[in-house]
Amino acid sequence: MSAEELNNLILDSDRVPTERQLETEQFYSDIVLGRRLSFERPYPPEVCLLRIDGVDFLAKGDLSAVKAKQKSGKTAALCIMMAALLSGRWGRLEAVSEGCKMVYLDTEQKPQDTQQVYRRIVGLARRPEQDDYDRLQLYTLRTLDPQVMLRALEEIIRRERPDIVFIDGIVDLVANFNEVEGSQQLIHELLRLASADVTGQDTAIVCVLHTNKADEDHNMRGHLGTMLSQKSGNVLECTKQGDLFCVRNADSRHRPVPQWTFTYDREGQLVDGDEEFKRYREEARALRQQMAVQREAQRANKKLEVALAIISEAGGRIQRTILRDKYGKAMKIKESAATTQIGKWIKKGELFSLNNIITVEKQQEQSLNFSDSDDSS
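The chain above was modelled as a monomer; its predicted structure follows.
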């Protein structure tokens, strides 16, 4: 072989791509290029599942977070959102479209307790207590370890293809919520499960996580909370103020979600807080009006009692001008006011007047043998 032929052979070998180069090109073509944005490529609009006051939230293909202190109504808030999705509306919350399929994963409670959540959801939605797995499924994962929980979540999403998944207790899906790497891996896995990569359709995933224990600290716990807050399209916070539970927008990638409230009525049932307090205000206003009428009636009775006492002292009948003067002096009012009050009593039939003689009972004209020369009315 000549030197020239040997040189050409070496050059040809350099032009043959290595296995690493082939793998890199395949990666770039399959993974990277598909994610390069273009103005010429149509991207479908975001699909949200719930709406309040014209603002849509809980987007498919995205994470959302619900945070709260302990016993601040987070599970009740989830029940209300699920009831709105199941029935179409609850209070000011309304489903954006019909037929939403939901999955609820409870990582904290016993099956008996989770079943009560099940009952509450269908009760709020005014549905019969019977399984409807095409619309709503609840799972209790309390006894599983974190990795098995995560695998169970993926299998449920893969097989059931829900529109939305509520995870009540995301902290149980990671061994240590304060460990950076594990928290990153979990959030990344949840983002993957929310995307269409798993089932071919996007899924909304709502994660519940407690805030730090200090009253003034409203951040979600640990590195997990920090990463969840960063990756979530909406972060809602549940707080309790007396008997009223508030769900407010703590953070949002787009339009803030308007605040909504709920409370318990006299029968212990969850009701819309705005409507319940509106009813309380109306009842209180009606009660105040009733009490005002009663007080006015009591004042009117006391005034009449003064006049009746004056008439009684005069033997049961009295000249109108004398009653006016004595009543005005007793009540410390002007003659004109006393005259007006006497006229009202006569008009209402509480006193009677004949020839300017005032009596308590109606008298026949011939029985009155004297008259008052005063013609005041």
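The two ends are 144 Å apart (CA to CA).
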